[in-house]
């Protein structure tokens, strides 16, 4: 593979371990499709998820090398973490993608290393991980081309919906836990940036995580751009001490509180604010320290906020509104000491998750109703509680 400073690209065919697989090759007497099906079955995906993954990978195989000239801009999807995300059309195939553009003032050798490190994304194929088409460097920017999720990210949905129902959050959390477990178990990757804007949904009811930290150089190069991300970081990470996947658990718990109450929960909302959100007849337990001003939590400067995360009690879900199981799940995520925080396996077996997985939540219908989309599959009309 040759790398050039003007337009450095890579886009490999679907692979099995380290061996390339294409439509015309076989591996140990098996066709590429048979090998692919076996790999997907090993990941515990259901028939619908496997079929969707096979379809995505077959589409990806046809695309070939990605270049800037082949991508037609259709609009902006969002911005953050030092980059902007665009909706684009791949002209040769007509496929709609999401393209993240990251401008970095670093040496060419560093940009090449980032491209090489992003290469592992080709191997991250799972039902709850956003699909990756390829990455390239052009005109001073790194482009990361991903699967387009038409429902958008949960931070955008939160702005439209106000807050997200507990039943929906249960299904979302189950998917996120499975995605995080896949990254850890299959690729020894921790996410490092779990937050609502990095959880995507679509009109087919799929839930996928994106923007996980596969490139150490990219993380280091963008360190000064992560102001918004720091507000979701665990106390141990903010203190600069050793951190692990337990740090992702904290970020998930904080995100859940935010999506459940409809506002970032640090500092905690007072009783008046909770009454405005949930109604005056609930038994709210707002933060007494915030009740004196009567105007809700005051805004904090970023350093004051980070100091609060490290030194003050963690946020909680208010009483009298959510189930005891949900409150317990969040409390287990938001332990200040990472050694006391629940791990992925424990959370995946938590009563709240087991209950959520037994429910038939219409995620596709909820996404379509909230975002004004046309369902890709038949959906129910009853809204979630």
Outline of the structure:
This protein has 15 helices and 13 strands. The chain is α+β, with helices and mostly antiparallel strands and 385 residues long. It has a six-stranded antiparallel β-sheet with strand order 1-9-10-8-7-6, with helices on both faces. A three-stranded antiparallel β-sheet has the order 11-12-13.
Q: What structural keywords apply?
A:
alpha+beta; Phosphorylase Kinase, domain 1; Transferase(Phosphotransferase), domain 1; 16% strand; 385 residues
Number of strands: 13
List unreliable stretches of 5+ residues.
Answer: 1-29, 288-294
Helix content: 25-40%
Based on Cα principal axes, name the global outline: globular
Protein name: mitogen-activated protein kinase kinase
Binding site for ATP: 100
GO cellular component, one term: cytosol
Pfam family, one: Pkinase
Describe this structure in words.
The structure is a single chain. With 385 residues, the protein is of the alpha+beta class. The protein folds into 2 domains: 7-147, 2-Layer Sandwich (Phosphorylase Kinase, domain 1); 152-371, Transferase(Phosphotransferase) domain 1 (Transferase(Phosphotransferase), domain 1). It has 15 helices and 13 strands. It has helices spanning 32-42, 47-63, 108-118, 154-161, 166-187, 216-221, 227-230, 235-238, 246-261, 271-278, 302-311, 324-333, 344-348, 351-358, 363-371; strands at 7-10, 15-16, 19-20, 26-27, 30-31, 71-80, 83-90, 95-103, 132-138, 141-147, 152-153, 199-201, 207-209. The strands form 4 sheets. The protein has a 6-stranded antiparallel sheet with strand order 1-9-10-8-7-6, with helices on both faces. A 3-stranded antiparallel sheet has the order 11-12-13. It has a two-stranded antiparallel ribbon with strand order 2-3. Belongs to the protein kinase superfamily. STE Ser/Thr protein kinase family. MAP kinase kinase subfamily. Its EC number is 2.7.12.2.
